[in-house]
Write a structure and sequence with these properties.
The chain is an alpha/beta fold. It has 13 helices and eleven strands. It has two domains: 17-187 and 339-351, no CATH class; 202-336, Glycogen Phosphorylase B (Rossmann fold, 3-Layer(aba) Sandwich).
């Protein structure tokens, strides 16, 4: 890589990103991002492993000022965990030693450069393991998808034997870490295969794992299917759908039931709204960035018995209002929850700049610091 002559120290020129495993910037800004894998091998991906040659080449570039930001994932397991080794052996076979080097290198590299680091943790778990504490200490911001409403709870049984109490929360090291936690959404990583439609053929659509996925789903599906007896058109496929058919039926519904699965945040929230269907979600359990607003972009419901049914009946009383909400939800998603928007949020938070290098104006909703 060569340094862009248009870049200046006062913030001019497009940002250059080094991304390892997080795979947000390679989607949002591929022409500005050098991307490497360092973990489980994703199906169909051909990006290079972060092996010895890539490690030393990028480290030289980092120390030479050729990158503005390093973006890494928050790994769910430590590098020394047996499952980490077994996964590398399973996915890479004879290349397993290189894969194990990549895993270790991606977690140790930050000791050898001074470029700002952003961590993006989109794991289902609300917790942050002890093995990531060094990463929190080194990074500027730790962006977490399932960031608990009380952020202290992410450290449950990691650095504390139980729920962190007053004494632990008062420690300076603990307070430094908690200040670095930021919410981030999954968004929807790829373009839907159909266009939104105003021709609605069902009242509610749902397709997804039920059991043993989430009690919110196993409890809610009974209420959802019972609404058929009241005359509502409930579209719940009895077999898996191909991606295009799935999108067609999702776009053709007035509401998309989008209950939490292993985590509260879900691709379906954004996928539905991008297709012009109003998402119906159980009340959030997490802190969010740019959340959907009740009765403007979405509906929320209580998971207690009868909560889902009441929310559906109330929402479907006014189809015209639902149609307006679908438009608002799609506009909001395209503005705030695309891969590009989420990448801009990360760089604005960490660098106070946009991907094009320009400065962020305070008051635009970004956490510029």
């Amino acid at each position: 890589m060569t340094v862009d002559p248009a870049r200046t120290k006062d913030g001019g020129g497009k940002l250059r990103i080094l991304e390892v495993n997080a795979h947000l910037f390679r989607i949002a800004a591929p022409d500005q991002t050098d991307f490497f894998w360092a973990g489980r091998k994703p199906e169909g991906q051909i990006s290079a492993l972060f092996g010895p040659s890539a490690f030393f080449r990028t480290l030289k570039a980092l120390r030479g000022g050729e990158y503005d930001l390093v973006v890494v994932d928050g790994p769910p397991l430590p590098a020394w965990h047996p499952r980490t080794w077994l996964t590398a052996l399973r996915d890479y076979h004879v290349r397993a030693p290189k894969a194990l080097f990549a895993i270790a290198a991606s977690r140790l590299m930050h000791h050898f450069h001074a470029v700002p680091v952003a961590v993006i943790d989109v794991n289902d778990s609300f917790g942050i393991g002890r093995h990531n504490f060094g990463l929190i200490d080194r990074c500027h911001s730790y962006f977490k998808r399932e960031l608990t409403a009380d952020r202290w709870q992410v450290f449950f049984k990691s650095s504390h034997w139980d729920l962190p109490g007053r004494r632990w929360r008062s420690m300076k090291s603990s307070q430094r870490r908690i200040k670095k936690l930021r919410p981030i959404h999954l968004g929807y990583p790829s373009q839907p295969m159909v266009e939104p439609t105003t021709q609605k053929t069902s009242d509610v659509f749902f397709a997804g794992d039920i059991s043993p996925n989430s009690t919110v789903r196993t409890d809610g599906i009974k209420e959802l299917l019972a609404l058929r007896d009241e005359g509502y058109v409930i579209d719940v496929p009895d077999k898996p759908l191909d991606r295009k058919t799935f999108h067609q039926r999702l776009a053709s519904a007035r509401l998309a039931w989008s209950p939490m699965g292993y985590g509260w945040d879900c691709y379906r929230h954004y996928e539905a709204s991008e297709l012009g269907t109003v998402p119906l979600m159980n009340y959030p359990t997490i802190l969010q960035h740019r959340p959907f607003r009740e009765s403007e972009h979405c509906f929320y419901y209580s998971v207690e018995p009868g909560g889902l049914s009441r929310a559906i009946r109330a929402a479907l009383k006014d189809p015209a209002r639902l149609a307006d909400m679908a438009v608002e939800a799609r506009t909001y998603t395209l503005q705030h929850h695309t891969a590009r928007a989420r990448a801009e949020y990360v760089v604005a938070t960490v660098l106070g700049r946009k991907l094009d290098g320009s400065r962020v104006v305070r008051g635009d909703g970004a956490h510029a610091q």
